[in-house]
Write a structure and sequence with these properties.
Radius of gyration: 29 Å
Number of domains: 2
Low-confidence stretches: 196-209, 214-224
Largest sheet: 5 strands, mixed
Order of helices and strands: HEHEHEHEEHH
Helix content: 55-70%
Structural class: alpha/beta
Distance between the termini: 30 Å
CATH superfamily of the largest domain: ATP synthase, F1 complex, gamma subunit
Length: 312
């Protein structure tokens, strides 16, 4: 019985050590979440205003003929998967993987598997896709929060070049949208072509694959708002505006994904810390019960021995 008490004490000590780790990770994630959440919400407001601006501009015919607005049959597609570098974030990565799988499955219904190019942000997403037999064209691992803007610009240069050359017909990004510290929603966003009033793929699985639209066609615009004079020319204006719009959209998704990751990790570590408290309480009760049982047994043995001596 004494051995059982020592074993329980050893387990309590191990659980407390783990609890210290989870509590520290919770505090770190909470501190990072405050900063990431502020950046994501600020970028969301800017992104919405940019959407409205581009929507008004593309309501006339001045944009016709620009390559980034050219919608064509999808024979080749590019998917950008934004995942985490580490685990210990609850179901964050699992939910993203399901959405990525659904998106890829929808694409390969209409095009070949070789026609899908995959770019990955995050070690977890890279490892998952490689285990599923997908070829990852580019991977970005361990990107600091302050370098997300530079990463968005680099990706934008690449995807605009491939889209303009006709090497890809559609660019989608799969990420987790930050709703609240307790809710993160995986979504699919179409980056290119920019103005597209229809879903990216005719798949029927709207919940899993239908991307949100970017820019044009999302709300009615009054005719009085469409009287624009372009200097020096509409093509020059769109050539400057559309790449910035795509960069902003991609940067916004990266910020949303990073805030969602921190929120999911903070929630998961808080749950782990609370579970450790419950386990410690349960083990403490077991230890007290074992000690009481041991003491009771020793007393009974002493009483029995004393009675045996008296009978002699």
């Amino acid at each position: 019985m004494a051995q059982a008490v020592r074993d329980i004490r050893r387990r309590i000590k191990a659980v407390r050590s783990t609890q210290q780790i989870t509590r520290a990770m919770q505090m770190v994630a909470a501190a990072r979440l405050r900063k990431a959440q502020g950046r994501a919400l600020s970028a969301r407001a800017y992104s919405e205003k940019l959407d409205e601006l581009l929507e008004r501009l593309t309501a006339d015919e001045a944009h016709i003929g620009h390559s980034l607005l050219d919608r064509r049959p999808v024979r080749r597609a590019t998917v950008i998967a934004v995942t985490a570098d580490r685990g210990l974030a609850g179901s964050y990565n699992t939910n993203l993987f399901r959405r990525v799988e659904a998106c890829l499955a929808a694409l390969v219904r209409d095009i070949t598997r070789d026609g899908v190019e995959i770019l990955v942000v995050g070690r977890k997403g890279r490892d998952y896709l490689r285990r599923r037999g997908w070829s990852v064209t580019r991977e970005e691992i361990g990107v600091p929060d302050d370098d997300l803007g530079q990463l968005a610009r680099e990706f934008t240069v690449r995807i605009i070049d491939t889209f303009s050359r006709g090497a890809t017909d559609e660019v989608l990004v799969v990420y987790s949208r930050f709703v609240s510290p307790l809710v993160q929603r995986p979504e699919v966003l179409r980056l290119l072509p920019v103005a597209s009033p229809e879903p990216a793929s005719e798949t029927g699985d709207e919940e899993a694959t239908a991307p949100r639209r970017t820019g044009a066609g999302e709300r009615p615009v009054e005719q009085s708002e469409l009287e624009y004079v372009y200097e020096p020319s509409p093509r020059t204006v769109y050539s400057l505006l559309l790449p910035k719009f795509v960069t902003n959209q991609l940067f916004h998704t990266l910020l949303e994904a990073r805030a969602s990751e921190y929120a999911a990790r903070m929630t998961a570590m808080k749950a782990a810390t609370d579970n450790a408290d419950d386990l410690i309480e349960k083990l403490t009760l077991e230890m007290h019960h074992a000690r009481q049982t041991s003491i009771t047994r020793e007393i009974m043995e002493l009483v029995g021995g004393a009675e045996a001596l008296e009978k002699r």
